[in-house]
Amino acid sequence: MLALRLARGAHPLVLLRRLMVAAASAGVGFLLLCTLMYALSHPEDSAAVVRLLWCGLPLATTVYLAVTVARTDPGTRPRPGLFAVGLGPFRLCALAAASTALTCTLGSMVALLFFLHLRGDLSGLPFDGAAAGMLAAEQPLPLPATLTLLALVPLLATVATAVVLRPRAAAPDAEESSGTPGGLPWGITLVALGLAVETYTSDGRADDRPAGVLAGWALTAVGLWLVGPGVTHLCGRLLQSVRPGATRLLAGRILMAESRRLGPPLGVMCAVASGAVTATAAYGSAPQPWSPLTTLGATLVVVCTATTLLTTAIEVRGARSEATTALRIVGAPATILRRAAALRAGVLVTVFVPLTLTVGALAAAPLTR
């Protein structure tokens, strides 16, 4: 009940983020239900399992978006006076998890209603049964399997939120004194392993062994997610190299301080963009017809990834607001702050765009031979 009241009284931007999570949850639920009905109507087709595996991509990006929105929610942050009324760190973590569960469950309910409406099971509304053939309206809808698939997003998002936001022992000095984030070597290893798996399992086209291609791309995506903080940290060091001035020094220090927060969504965006480069290179000469469900899945992945990156950027900007105010108080010109922001954006684009194109080209090489 408290989570519902906080959701009703939240800022419009926070409500918009939660609405995005609910919409993404609805889209993933609809994809899972469509995959279920395809498997029931085509029991002899082994591609149904592959379709279910491909649904894991929008599922993962939706869970990642839900965790990011929960982490940036001001209603679940520790504030003075909350501990006195019984809202300590553990209660706030449980509140964030409950809000995530409520938002994702709402999206799953919308997905079920929309699915039943397009099948023609619900009448009295426009477009009744408009997709009855595609959704196998002649097949009965199994209730246990339906509820299990619809519970995937709320369950995974709630567990992930509770794990990420769980109270930890504060050790700010150790975190500030560490060097480059430690995930860089592991990320490079996973990227190389993912490219190797994709090269080994593919035979000239991604349609021949889609499960192997999916496994290779998943490993590459996880590797880029781990690489993101380290690359962002190195971008900050790059800005401060060769006798830096005040602007480059400020921009580099900010990138190094924000690498742990901004790096992971940058790595995920790099993975999604490299996947798009791979698909373009593999099917550029022979365009493949995209079904509505494929378009929906790709749209979910891109929108969720972009929203996660934008939400994280807003979060880190708010986190350094006090430092920005202090710089203005001591007389720092506004032009220096704007130039520092432009330098940060420029060096990130300069480094991550070639990385994306390189990974995409290497992933597309075995698919175009």
Annotate the secondary structure layout.
Layout: H1 2-8, H2 12-41, H3 47-54, H4 56-71, H5 89-119, H6 143-150, H7 152-164, H8 172-177, H9 183-201, H10 210-239, H11 246-283, H12 292-319, H13 321-329, H14 334-364
- What share of the residues lie within helices? over 70%
Question: What spatial form do the alpha-carbon principal axes imply?
Answer: globular
The helix count comes to: 14
Q: Mean pLDDT across all residues, rounded?
A: 82
Cα-atom Rg, whole angstroms?
23 Å
Low-confidence stretches: 171-177
**How much beta, percentage-wise?**
under 5%
Number of strands: 0
Structural class: mainly alpha
Q: In angstroms, what separates the terminal alpha carbons?
A: 58 Å
The run of helices and strands is HHHHHHHHHHHHHH
**Major β-sheet profile:** none
Number of structurally distinct domains: 2
